[in-house]
Write a structure and sequence with these properties.
Order of helices and strands of chain B: EEEHEEHEHHHHHEHEHEEHHE
Number of strands of chain B: 11
Structural class of chain A: mainly alpha
Radius of gyration of chain A: 24 Å
Largest sheet of chain B: 7 strands, mixed
Radius of gyration of chain B: 19 Å
Strand content of chain B: 15-25%
Number of domains of chain A: 2
CATH architecture of the largest domain in chain A: Orthogonal Bundle
Strand content of chain A: under 5%
Oligomer: heterodimer
Bound molecules: adenosine-5'-triphosphate, magnesium ion
Structural class of chain B: alpha/beta
CATH superfamily of the largest domain in chain A: MetI-like
Shape of chain B: globular
Strand order of the largest sheet of chain B: 6-7-8-3-9-10-11
Helix content of chain A: over 70%
Largest sheet of chain A: none
CATH class of the largest domain in chain A: Mainly Alpha
Distance between the termini of chain A: 14 Å
Order of helices and strands of chain A: HHHHHHHHHHHHHH
Shape of chain A: globular
């Protein structure tokens, strides 16, 4: 079996085990927090019989192990139960709110990689010059405040005092396009509306940048440090002794090996983004999974809580799997764990 | 022009400017290497061998804080009088270098074949992938690697140190340079492999008509390999001569101390030296018939 395929299968297997573990944990935790979900959902005026009936409908009168069994059986059919908060299937809720969050995170992740890595590489190539100093100050600034603080600052500066960007939401009312994927950038393009696309991109810019800033700083600092270390390696001197251009040496001799440790950390930063997105979404009134998540937790909507947590965990595992595959692709030591025959 | 030595250093001085002031490292090195000659530069750790090699390659010239004076002529052309671009053009074409630890000197994320292609492109930018591969395979065959396809598709970490050493020798001579600099080649390898690659290098430089600047602190190895020897001590050449003469009648006290250290071929190095000895301040020892040519 090719090593890359083996790696993917291995990661899929471990991810599944992790997901099962997470589901058990959240299933149990959601049920031990105090408060009766049926009572909360029906309100103080409901009769004891009504509450009892709802508890029975939710299988809450069964032992927890049986409840988990029922949950697994439903999950296998792609059914996460009905949310007591929205009175809709949890899967429908997630399908509605997840794309907004994913769009935000994916764009922020791309910013982190596409801005952070080149900044770090630039700083390393021109180390100890003014270029380096400038980049170091910027990246230090980036990591020095949490993303919701950046969200507020950016919003005040670039949406309020200087109204360059829209202040909240995903797209202007007038620009609304039919929902296909739920990803605004994709849906506007599918509708062939470039004006709407630009509008959606402008809405996305500030929250995504706020979310990405600390990651950008982190990625830049790390890449710089790794690359400077790489520049001291014998294979760089060898490349220089062959007269390869500085540009080629920076790009393919120093940058690529330095990417390996950087990417590992970027994977972790990405995970942190999933958490930070909740606060940034709140600041920019971004209709994503965060508001839904907070509501279902406050209302002790069991199915909503379990569904949200599972989806976030799955997202986290997928991101890490992608990073691992990228790493294997870049680092031949992983890709070719055995000597060629 | 044709009788200009392949490498000529005349009164080469090097100082590093640092936060604490200026540190002089080379105090006027003069040496020459004629076409096809194998010349050793021997001295203890820190005596200035590697910086000399880096200056010859034109690498230190670009480093801030390094102050270089004196002449460096490669095939008669003065490096200092050349543009940076022209200096870079010599590297990988007219001169190349092999390094101490072959495995860490090869790029870890590219296959040997890819690295070979890049080296061959230095001399022939238009060479096709296929032609480069064929040429690389032929070069590997020359260094007794008889399954070139496997090696070209491998990464350095998948090959043994001795194998990488041979790959590096083949790469260094791929473009038929006039000068090959070998900075303590193979000291990271075990003694038998070192001896093998030394023999191989000897044959390869003869076949490719390259002159060699062979840097070492191991006189045992030098005796095997070099036609002539320069002994460097604290940034000065203290003695030089044909290998046989130098080994028969070492004149400078430092050379004799070096020789006393020879039996420990694999390492260790030089025993404690009586540095206060007047003999160390003696002027350069010169064996007959090898005077430095006049500066041209
Ligand atoms: N970039 C630099 N800046 C400051 N000092 C340097 C620099 N490079 C080398 N030196 C100093 O120059 C001296 C000579 O160094 P060099 O590397 O040439 O020694 P060497 O003879 O090759 O020793 P070894 O056998 O250990 O390789 C050393 O004292 C070293 O500390
Ligand atoms: Mg050295």
């Amino acid at each position: 079996m090719p090593p890359l395929l083996r790696l993917i299968l291995w990661r899929l297997g471990t991810s599944l085990i992790v997901l099962i573990g997470v589901s058990m944990l959240i299933f149990a935790i959601a049920r031990v927090i105090p408060g009766d979900p049926a009572r909360i959902a029906l309100g103080a005026n409901a009769t004891a019989e009504q509450v009892e009936a709802l508890r029975a409908r939710l299988n809450l009168d069964e032992p927890i192990v049986v409840q988990y069994g029922i949950f697994l059986r439903d999950l296998a059919r792609g059914d996460l139960g009905v949310s007591l908060y929205t009175n809709r299937p949890v899967t429908a809720d997630i399908a509605q709110f997840l794309p907004a969050t994913m769009e935000l995170i994916v764009v922020a992740g791309l910013m982190m990689v596409l801005i952070g890595l080149p900044l770090g590489a630039l700083a390393a190539r021109y180390r100890n010059s003014w270029v380096d100093s400038t980049i170091r100050v910027i990246s230090l600034l980036g990591v020095s405040a949490p993303s919701f603080v950046w969200a507020v600052i950016l919003m005040l500066l670039f949406a309020y005092f200087l109204p360059i960007f829209p202040i909240a939401g995903r797209i202007s009312e007038a620009m609304a396009v039919p929902r296909v994927t739920g990803f605004m950038l994709i849906d506007t393009l599918l509708a062939g509306r470039f004006d709407a696309f630009r509008n959606a991109a402008a809405h996305l810019a500030l929250p995504a940048f706020a979310l990405a800033l600390s990651g950008i700083g982190q990625a830049a600092r790390l890449t710089r440090a790794n690359m400077i270390e790489t520049y001291d390696k014998p294979y760089i001197e060898m490349a220089q002794s062959y007269g390869f251009s500085e540009r080629k040496i920076a790009r393919s001799y120093a940058f690529r090996p330095s990417l390996i440790p950087s990417l590992t950390i970027i994977g972790l930063d990405f995970a942190a983004m999933l958490g930070n997105a909740f606060l940034v979404e709140a600041v920019f009134a971004w209709p994503g999974l965060s508001r839904y998540g907070v509501e279902v937790i406050l209302r002790k909507d069991l199915n909503g809580i379990v569904g949200t947590v599972l989806v976030i965990s799955a997202l986290f595992l997928i991101v890490n799997m992608i990073i691992d595959i990228l790493l294997a692709y870049i680092n031949p030591r992983i890709r070719h764990s055995t000597r060629p025959s | 022009m044709t009788d200009a030595p392949t490498l000529l250093l005349r009164d080469l001085r090097l100082a590093f400017r640092g936060y604490t002031g200026v540190t002089e490292v080379l105090h006027g090195i003069s040496l020459h290497i004629r076409a096809g000659e194998r010349v050793a530069l021997v001295g203890e750790s820190g005596s200035g061998k590697s910086v000399t090699a880096r200056i010859v390659l034109g690498l230190l010239q670009d480093q801030r804080g390094a102050r270089i004076t004196g002449q460096v002529r490669v095939e008669g052309r003065d490096l200092a009088a050349m543009s940076r671009r022209a200096r870079v053009a010599l590297r990988g074409r007219r001169m190349s270098m092999i390094f101490q630890d072959p495995t860490s000197a090869l790029n870890p994320v590219y296959r040997i074949g890819t690295q070979f292609t890049e080296v061959l492109r230095r001399a022939d930018p238009a060479i096709t992938e296929r032609a480069a591969r064929a040429r690389a395979a032929a070069l590997l065959d020359e260094v007794a690697i008889h399954d070139p396809a496997r090696v070209l598709d491998a990464y350095a970490f998948q090959l043994s140190g001795g194998m990488n050493q041979r790959v590096m020798i083949a790469m260094a001579l791929a473009n038929n340079p006039a000068l090959l600099i070998a900075d303590e080649p193979g000291t990271a390898l075990d003694v038998t492999v070192q001896a093998q690659t030394l023999g191989l290098m000897r044959r390869m430089v003869a076949d490719h008509g390259a002159a060699v600047l062979f840097i070492s602190h191991n006189l045992g190895v030098v005796r095997e390999f070099a036609d002539r020897v320069y002994v460097i001590y604290k940034g000065r050449i203290v003695e030089h001569g044909p290998t046989a003469a130098l080994f028969d009648t070492p004149r400078h006290a430092y050379t004799r101390a070096l020789m006393a250290a020879v039996p420990r071929i694999t390492g260790g190095g030089i025993p404690d030296l009586p540095e206060r000895d007047d003999a160390f301040a003696a002027p350069m020892e010169l064996h007959p018939g090898v005077a430095e040519p006049e500066a041209t």
